[in-house]
Amino acid sequence: MKHMKFLLLTLLAAWSIGAQAQQKIAHIDVQKILAEMPEYKKAQAELKQLYQTYQKEFEQMQKEYFEKLQKYQQEASQVTQEENQRRAQELQQMEQSIMQAQQRIQEDLAKKEAEKMKAIQDKLMNAIESVAAEKGYDYVLDSSAPSAVLVARGPDIYNDVKRKLGL
Fold this sequence. Notes:
The chain has five helices and two strands, in the order H-E-H-H-H-E-H. By secondary structure, the chain is mainly α. It has a single domain, classed as Protein Binding, DinI Protein, Chain A (2-Layer Sandwich), CATH 3.30.910.20. It is rod-shaped, with a radius of gyration of 29 Å.
């Protein structure tokens, strides 16, 4: 009985290894091909421009805050304590507005990036899936993620996907 179990497990393991050997695996550097896509370049330029616009807005808010802070510090000895308290409260409100603006900017940039990248990533994934289907690959690994691919001896479908995308 023990020999029968051992024989069965050995056969099962051999069959499993044989089945895995039949799978076809390829790889592609997704970051490299993304960088060559005109849509990606355009999206990056638009996001950079949006970031610069937000950066100017944020810097203006900070400038106004520091100018007001400096003015209030210079005039602090010349005004009443109530006026200084009111000014301190105004500065706190400005600080909160700046922090909220910073958070809003980060969220908006992340949202815009996700919106712009979704269509580009979908187009790339469709091209990869199409090439994989045409060539009969069961798996396509992203070789731009070093932790995901330790050895890349399988075929690189980069040029095939590039042709599929018309690049």
